[in-house]
Design brief:
binds iron/sulfur cluster; globular; Rossmann fold; 10 helices; 2 domains; alpha/beta; five-stranded parallel beta sheet; 5 strands
């Protein structure tokens, strides 16, 4: 049986990094308890963090990071041309991620502040989908290791890819947490796609939305509740912009 044009018996996978911290790749590489079993289903032909192989013949390209240089556009375009399925992995790849904050400031000011006297080629940050066609997005900062594995296995065996559509609040309530909004914090859990186990609110920190929008997210109600709790517009906006995950979808 084929899925997205790939013969499941012969799936070759390449993992590629662009502008990002490589934390998503590390999540995969560090998952020792299931890494061998996971890799037994695949032929890893390009994954800098675990192998010195660098074949350009692959079926699935897992792409981490956002795009912030001209040479990255060229490399990504080449990867897209070779891959049957291209998967954007992590908030940087899916939304621009924390890197996208750079776009809020004049580029020359960012370069001066970050690199000082050094001459560095850098441009406005783009999501992977701004440059090439993306077949699947796996959100998160970092991604959930088990989610990446289960999605890749689904592609390989031809099963339906499942990513939760409901919000983080559902998992938070399953964890029997006290709502951090009632503790005076901003939490984007009501509008953010679940799947992380509500790890931030469980640790008493507000969700910053690294997994992107939940289905039918009610932005207006969240803003209203946060205003009622005394948070100002700029504070709310700052949280919503953190990963650029809600870009263009946060009506006031
Ligand atoms: S999504 Fe987060 S963990 Fe992954 S590369 Fe970007 S900053 Fe690093
Ligand atoms: S802490 Fe955040 S995720 Fe948890 S119930 Fe409150 S708003 Fe929802
Ligand atoms: S709680 Fe929110 S910010 Fe934290 S990991 Fe989950 S989706 Fe990301």
């Amino acid at each position: 049986m084929k899925y997205l044009g790939i013969d499941p018996q012969k799936v070759k996978i390449g993992v590629f990094d662009f502008t990002g911290c490589e934390g998503c790749e590390l999540q995969l590489a560090n998952k020792e308890e299931s890494l061998l079993e996971f890799l037994s289903l695949l032929e890893v032909v390009n994954f800098r963090e675990i192998s010195s192989d660098s074949s350009q013949d692959y079926d699935i390209a897992l792409v981490e990071g956002s795009i912030s240089r001209k040479d990255e556009i060229e490399r990504l375009t080449d990867i897209r041309a070779r891959a049957k399925v291209l998967v954007a992995m992590g908030a940087c790849a899916c939304f621009g991620g924390v890197n996208y904050l750079k776009n809020q400031y004049p580029l020359k000011d960012v370069v001066k502040e970050v690199y000082g006297m050094h001459s560095v080629e850098t441009s406005k940050v783009k999501r992977i989908a701004d440059v090439v066609k993306v077949d699947l997005n796996i959100p998160g900062c970092p991604v959930s290791k088990s989610e990446v594995e289960s999605i890749i296995v689904s592609i390989v065996v031809g099963a339906e890819v499942k990513i939760p559509k409901y919000p983080v609040c559902v998992e938070c309530k399953q964890n029997v947490n006290t709502c951090v909004v009632d503790l005076g914090k901003i939490c984007l859990g009501p509008i953010t796609r679940a799947g992380c186990g509500a790890v931030c609110p469980t640790g008493k920190a507000g969700c910053l939305g690294c997994r992107g929008p939940a289905e039918d997210a009610n932005y207006g109600s969240l803003r209203e509740i946060l205003r009622e709790k005394g948070h100002c517009e700029s504070e709310i906006e700052q949280k919503l912009c953190f990963y650029n995950a809600f870009n263009g979808s946060t009506e006031k």
